[in-house]
TrEMBL record:
Keywords: Cytoplasm, Queuosine biosynthesis, S-adenosyl-L-methionine, Transferase. Pfam families: Queuosine_synth. This is S-adenosylmethionine:tRNA ribosyltransferase-isomerase. InterPro entries: QueA, QueA_dom1, QueA_dom2, QueA_sf.
Amino acid sequence: MTAVLHDFTLSADRAATAPPEARGLARDAVRMLVSDNGILTHARFRELPRFLRPGDLVVVNNSATLSAAVEARYGGEAAVLHFATWLDDGGWVAELRSPEGVPFTAVAPESGARVELPGATATLRAPWLPPAARLWVADIDTDVPALLARHGRPITYSYVTQHWSPDYYRTVFGREPGSAEMPSAGRPFTETLVTELVAAGITVAPITLHTGLSSPEKGEPPSPERYAVPAITARLVNAAHATGGRVVAVGTTVTRALESATDRSGRVHPAAGWTNLTLGPDRPARAVDGLITGWHEPGASHLRLLEAVAGAERVGQAYRTALDTGYLWHEFGDTALLFAQPAPTADR
């Protein structure tokens, strides 16, 4: 069953090529497949409150999306430079892409090479995570936030057929600029929906995780990312578990952050810094009881994270159902709410 999940075929017509608003849908009207206690339910995202209960805790990512793609030239060829994250030494992690949104193959990146940007230059220092050569550390001779504010646009890939304004890449939770790509699991939330959750006795709490760049090379593990779990959120997670509530993470980003701050007993502590945690069979989820997520491509490391929360059997069942019933993939697509198998006892 796990092999089927990781090796499935995704046809081009399953990619959401534009925001749901362009398809005549409200943000919270995208489809949501719910897997709870072995039962699958088809719903719309705005129905989320009926699948939760008083005492549950929904944890959201308050990272805001940067306009992190900048037109560039490298080796005399047109390119786009994607800014992933800033480093403590002042450098930036970046990736060269083609103007069509696919990997840049015209000229191989080299240490010391210069990437021409609007009114600025990026000098490639070295690969960030060798032996992979997708991401490079670059030194930029200008203020990068100002460069992105003036010349940047949201990062897109080849399945998105036109450029959309930054408004389409904002979530209602975004307060801390820093994500290279939108924490897209939070996109379907609206202020009205958040109000309904709170009015129903469901608590909402934030973490911060600044997302890096997707589309890793085959076999490349998830990149390290900056994160912070505040003390109040750690307390709320522990309190929810102590009183029988469930902790529902909005996205793989929230799951990674919370689990990075969780000890072996399942207790969450305040934490901040870089995380390189990879969840999977050898490291199951300890704090997260449910996960709101988009649909991920075959072979994506995110699939193992989903399995670490909900189990391979449930994730496989959900993916086969989504493939059979027309769900849409990627950041503008549909969603899932996957719950873990309930523990047989109150011990965590």
